Amino acid sequence: MYWSMAQQLTHHTVNGCNLRSGDMMGSGTISGPTKDSYGSMLELSWRGQNPVSLKNNKERKFIQDNDTVIMRAHSEKNGLRIGFGECVGKILPALED
Q1: What pTM was estimated for this model as a whole?
Q2: Tens digit of pLDDT for each residue in 41-91?
Q3: Cα–Cα distance between 44 and 38 in angstroms, integer?
Q4: Which among 21, 61, 64, 74 is most buried, taking Cβ atoms within 10 Å?
């Protein structure tokens, strides 16, 4: 990844965007060239054109308010597997001004 988070934050704010406590920042995705290596919901749904099937028999084209997102990962080589734990977050609706 080319830019540090501090550089991304600086670039974001010097262009006039107001940032508030609680705003979410992302560093982008690290994806591969094939469907099994896509790294974001936008890629998985191909910009909303292809629904993603969930385990509860529902489909999503985009993440929705009140969805819970769970990310798990591991790396494996030569029979050694290292887990990176679990990251869980619930997407809350935007606050009304």
Answers
A1: 0.60
A2: 889 999 999 999 999 999 999 999 999 999 888 889 999 999 988 989 999
A3: 6
A4: 61
